[in-house]
Design a protein that fits this description.
Layout lengths: L11 E5 L4 H14 L6 H14 L3 E3 L2 E2 L2 E4 L6 E11 L9 E10 L6 H13 L2 H9 L3 H9 L2
Parallel strand pairs: 1-5, 3-6, 4-6
Antiparallel strand pairs: 2-3, 5-6
Helix pairs in contact: 1-2
Length: 150
């Protein structure tokens, strides 16, 4: 899976100011909506929140991967935010989240692309060096290259 096909510079915020998880979700949902990746902010946001209620997407190591399968999603997409200050995400390691990678998946691609993307990301995020590089990145192009690396 080539992550560079799922994201562009306008879907990245490297200095997001958010006070909590909900504000972060809203900001990334706005980016997806502005880039015409979703048809309804409300429906998509509700799907993300519903998924969080099933269990945290706070992966650990200051990273969260909120995701949603929804009819409001036009195409498989990804939005990323680095937070100026960490926010509580009920992460498995109880640490505050500083990097959020949000996945938007249309229902019809739910069982293929969704699992492939999550698998690829979670495998990469198990490597401490990779996470450190993501948390340190200050350039959108470098972030896309990092996420796209095999």
């Amino acid at each position: 899976m080539d992550v560079s096909e799922l994201i562009n510079h306008k879907l990245i915020d490297l200095s997001l100011t958010a006070n909590n998880q909900l504000e972060t979700i809203e900001a990334l949902t706005d980016l997806l909506y502005q880039e015409d990746k979703i048809t309804s902010k409300e429906e998509f946001k509700a799907g993300i929140i519903e998924r969080e209620e099933e269990g945290t997407t706070g992966f650990g190591q200051k990273v969260a991967i909120p995701h949603c399968k929804s009819d409001s999603v036009k195409e498989v997409s990804m939005a990323v935010a680095k937070l100026k200050e960490g926010v509580d995400w009920n992460a498995v390691d109880e640490d505050k989240v500083k990097l959020v990678i949000m996945l938007a998946v249309p229902n019809q691609a739910a069982n293929t692309k969704h699992i492939e993307i999550l698998s690829t990301l979670s495998t990469k995020l198990m490597e401490d060096e990779f996470v450190e590089q993501l948390l340190a990145v200050k350039d959108k192009e470098k972030l896309i290259k990092l996420l796209s690396k095999d």
